[in-house]
Amino acid sequence: MFLPETELQRVGDALVDELIGYRQQAGISTAVLGMSGGVDSALTAALLKRAGWRVLGFTLPIEQNPEETERGVEACHTLGLEHMHLDLSGLYRHIVSELGELDIRIASKDEERLRTRRGNVRARLRMITLYDQAHRFSGLVASTDNFSELGAGFWTLHGDVGDLAPVQSLIKSWEVPWLARAFGVPERTWRANPTDGLGIGGGDEAQIGVSYLEWDVMVFALLEGLACNPGLSAQELAEALKIGGDMHARTALGTVLRRLRSTWHKRSNPIRLDHPVAERYEALDALDARLFRPAVLRADEALSRFSGELQDLANQLADALKASERRLVTAESCTAGLLAACVAGAPGSSGVLEGSFVTYCSSLKSDALGVPAELIEEKTPYHPEVARQMATGALDRAPCASLALAVTGVGGPGPHEGKPPGLVYIGAALRGHDPHVEEHHFFGLPKEVLAATIRAALHLGLRTIREANALRP
Ligand SMILES: Nc1ncnc2c1ncn2[C@@H]1O[C@H](COP(=O)(O)OP(=O)(O)OC[C@H]2O[C@@H]([n+]3cccc(C(=O)O)c3)[C@H](O)[C@@H]2O)[C@@H](O)[C@H]1O
Ligand SMILES: Nc1ncnc2c1ncn2[C@@H]1O[C@H](COP(=O)(O)OP(=O)(O)OP(=O)(O)O)[C@@H](O)[C@H]1O
Fold first, then answer.
1. Looking at ligand 2, which residue's alpha carbon is closest to its atom 17?
2. Nearest CA to ligand 2 atom 2
3. Digits of tens for pLDDT over the chain (473 positions)?
4. Cis peptide before 270 (omega within 30 of 0)
5. ipTM here
6. What is the Å distance from ligand 1's center to 157 Cα?
7. Which of 20, 121, 371, 393 lies 20 to 30 Å from 132 when distance is taken between CA atoms?
8. Which whole-number Å values give the CA distances from 116 to 126, 146, 153, 258, 433, in the listed order?
9. Measured from the CB, is residue 265 less than 6 Å from ligand 1?
10. Which bound ligand lies closest to the C-alpha atom of 70?
11. Which ligand is nearest to the CA of 57?
């Protein structure tokens, strides 16, 4: 999980691409954000700027160390943002004094809990300002939160998290400063000691109780531990990390687990109960996804829908195979086994799935399935005859199977061998019947094309069986 330097530039470029995609598809191109003088806001601004957004950076000090504001101004100038400034200290003092009418302690005492409450008021005052400015400029509020803060619950609900969060997947100990340096953030800022600037006490790390590096390493260890042993409780998981007698690591682990446990609700906000009519959420979400949500966001969901629509279709195909006492073999190029994996997820799949030939490269289509190399050379792998021969080749080599589904196409994002992205041929060969090939032109990013291909192949399989059943005496 800890990304090496060689991967980080790629991650940064991919984030910029996503921000370009969102800007072009969502019809919004202005972002406002608070520039604290810290590295998260500076990196967020740098990525947005690189992606062609109009970026308005606001310095909004509230009884602030002037050095932080200076760094915020410097970052705005260096990154070419439009800079605006409003000192909110007077407003803050006023609201705290007014809140003292409800609870005198908030205005007068210096306890940690009260400092946290006052700190949250500061964060929320800034957010009121930023949302007003977003409306003024027909823009959105950029969020500056990162993955480390997400796990630690180290942000203020409805305070410093806005509409679009470009750096939320990045860790603070390494990826955020590395990318900040790579994307031109001033050195003074990416080297600055992380602080919430809310007057709660110490820097971020003093408040959280461990350094960001310890936090990130520990959280990754816990996540990997859980991936290997999904059944473990938090206590068992901690023991599985085999920390032994290292007292510092034990204390750090205790701190990390305590913070994760006490902040899970912030990561699920707002809490959605398991309402008796909760399927309404899904229906509304499906409507948004299908009709309104920009494709750049839909792409990630396309293949993760195995538990939804694709799996339902795969279950239907498995049922149809079982009812007609047939077994399936697949021959897959662009989907590289995903079609078979989908059928493998159906209940009772071992009774109906023979296996899969994953023939991604052209030579394997010839070697493993017997598709003539001359045919591929002359026509490219993206041709109906190739799909037909992949299907019949698979059927010949899997004597216990009676249905073969074959897929060959250009997943994208660009053209290949002169064929456009999204061009896909799907072949179906049922033993004793003529093979059949369909041509498709799918639209979208590679993941969407693959998901659409799997969906179409499952449909073709179902149709082929139904039509054959109809012909049976
Ligand atoms: N079980 C539950 N289910 C649903 N909601 C629950 C809940 N328990 C509490 N809540 C709600 O959560 C609230 C507590 O959360 P919240 O209001 O956010 O406040 P809280 O997490 O207590 O404090 C904010 C923390 O974030 C830090 N921070 C803030 C801003 C910026 C930065 C930075 O460095 O970037 C850091 C700050 O230093 C402080 O440690 C409760 O008042 C309550 O409304
Ligand atoms: N003085 C400020 N002016 C404008 N925005 C601010 C200010 N202080 C905080 N913010 C906003 O709140 C967010 C969280 O605050 P925080 O102090 O954690 O800054 P940061 O950019 O995350 O940097 P770091 O945590 O490294 O100091 C900031 O990213 C920024 O958008």
1. 196
2. 36
3. 788 898 899 899 999 999 999 999 999 999 999 999 999 999 999 999 999 999 999 999 999 999 999 999 999 999 999 999 999 999 999 999 999 999 999 998 888 899 999 999 999 999 999 999 999 999 999 999 999 999 999 999 999 999 999 999 999 999 999 999 999 999 999 999 888 777 777 788 888 999 999 999 999 999 888 877 778 888 888 888 888 888 999 999 999 999 999 999 999 998 988 788 877 887 888 788 778 888 888 655 555 544 467 888 899 999 999 999 999 999 999 999 999 999 999 999 999 999 999 999 999 999 999 999 999 999 999 999 999 999 999 999 999 999 999 999 999 888 999 999 899 999 999 999 999 999 998 877 788 889 889 999 999 999 999 988 888 77
4. yes
5. 0.94
6. 6
7. 20
8. 15, 20, 13, 18, 73
9. yes
10. 2
11. 2
Residue with tokens 């957004």: 53
Angle at 368 between CA 366 and CA 372, to 5 degrees: 20
Domains and CATH numbers, the chain: 5-207 (3.40.50.620), 209-270 (no CATH), 308-471 (3.90.950.20)
Q: Can you give the pTM of this predicted structure?
A: 0.73
Which residues have C-beta within 8 Å of that of residue 409, sequence separation ≥ 6?
Answer: 333, 334, 382, 422, 423, 424, 425, 440, 449, 453
Compute the distance between CA of residue 366 and CA of residue 376 in angstroms, rounded to an integer: 9
Output the residue whose Cα is nearest ligand 1's atom 13.
157
